[in-house]
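User: Some background: our group keeps a shared notebook of sequences we're curious about, and every so often someone picks one and asks for a predicted structure to add to the entry. Today it's my turn. The entry only has the sequence so far, pasted here. Could you supply the structure so I can complete it?
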Amino acid sequence: MLSGPGRRALLVSLCGLLVALGTWSVPGPAVAATDDQLVLVLDSSGSMAERVGGRRKIDIAKRALSGVVGGLPDEARVGLRVYGAEVFERTDPGACTDSQLVVPIGTDNRSELRDAVAGYEPFGETPISYSLRQAAKDLGPEGKRTVLLVSDGEETCDADPCATAAALARADVEVKIDVVGLAVSGRTRDQLRCVAERGNGTYYDADSADDLTASLDKLATRAFRPFRLTGTAVTGAADRADAPELRPGQYLDAFRGREEPLVYRLPRTAAGTTLRAGITTQPAGTVATAAVRLRRADGSECGNGLAQAIAIGGSSPLVSGEVDSWRSGGDGECTTEDELLVEVVSYAEELAGTPFELVLSEEPPVSGTAGLPPAVQEVRWERTSTGGAAQAPPVPGSSLSDAPTLEPGRYRTTVLTGESQVYAVEADWGQRVQVTATVAPRRGALAEALSVSDSLDLQLLAPGRGRYANVRLTGEPEQTTTMAVDATPFRVVGSTPTVRYLNRTSSGSESYAAVPGTQYVVLNLDRSAEDAFLVPYTLDVEVVGEAGEGAPAYDGEASASPTPSEQTSREAAAGSSDTAASQEPGEPDEQGAPVVLLSGLGVMLVAVAGMGYLLWRQRRRRAD
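Assistant: Of course. Here's the predicted structure to add to the notebook entry:
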């Protein structure tokens, strides 16, 4: 089911990361290190002496910047460039090159950043174009790099900063230019907005100290959490003869062209174990479809997981798929054959060359299912209360690989229009995760900018990264997925099924709740407004049920490793593709992707047909 008419991100059948560890639970997300860089470019022109609400713009900026510097992660590589700080007269030949890197990019420079911020005063001209070019040089040629420009004025030199931003973006897709306009309007606002748009960044209006602090904090934080994938670099083959042998773990590869499969070999350590394979990537266009399959050596299919997403309104849903070899009663070669083939294929031209995560696992068989709770048929909403004062959550992830873990409780934070936020919540056997996101009434510019087409989308993903779609939820509070036609608060709610072993017998998405581990909370805020806005919301997270209830007894005959073996990692890395070869085992790969607006009914029909096909395949497979 698509939530919202023609507007929802559809994630069908996401990927599996299931590892046999004692009672057989799934580990949480691994947070990846980053070499991302950010350079703050600050306006020190004479107009920064003007007042807003009785305070000089320069003083508003100082306060906001001091707060941002203090909140930066220790490992964040940040620098500071200031323009218009040394040359006063426009006729001076140096006015249009008056731009200095006052604090070089680094990690151990927070005191220097604070001192530089405290000492900068309004003085000269506004050479934005020159400063952008210099900032790109400051950041160097490699990695994800962000220029964060704060300005209150137009370019005063003979140059077009909008064209400069476009040229920088064309020359290097890894460079992004975010812009905050401080109390601007008219031509100035149009020019600064254009710089962000052409520079693949975000524009934000700030009319007060609080606005500027919030926008700088959000944009600076986002610079250090781009979408990232993690795993050991491998290269899939076109056929079985050349396919690399992989062990349970997480790998990185890149899609080939449309309908060009990649093949891997996944050995089984004992008869009756359940082999699982999953893929995760980010959509590179309006609709992205891929599949992950398990096959026997003769080519017959043991399972097919469809991965699909529709990217709408600036949000970045995941493209993920999951498949397993489980069969009722453990019958058939799919559950006993010594080795299965994993096949990954893309059906979208836009995904060609795009990196993806491949996650493999092996689950031991159980000694019996007698007495285990039956598969979940529906979920009853419980009107419980998290209680206590709301707290600030940790910095959200942008993908499953960097999602921070939330404890049950109430959290108050903001989401930027066009942004995706990912959190992780742990659930054991007999437990489920219940989530409520409540958006406060919109006022002022926010209320004017948002329309009925702006919506907050809540998705819940299983430990194997399958999306809980169409879970029957009864007794839930009143909800809506529309941002505003008036200034009233609204909420979106969701719940995972209770984790039970026999959920795997289900033909629906309840089958994903068949193992304990990390459940993922994914929030996407669509963006239809021309500019970006911060939307405040409250997130209530509850874990319902008694931990350990209904846990099965595994027979202990199978062994499974949660990570690739050392030998496999070395061999895989040696033969990896160009995209993955630069990644050491466990090193993140970061792939930005443009998101375009959905148009036409045909795309939606593809999504609906894909879901119908997957459900048909699941019912047929479970019945075999």
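Suggested note for the entry: The chain has a mean pLDDT of 76. The longest helix spans residues 601-623.
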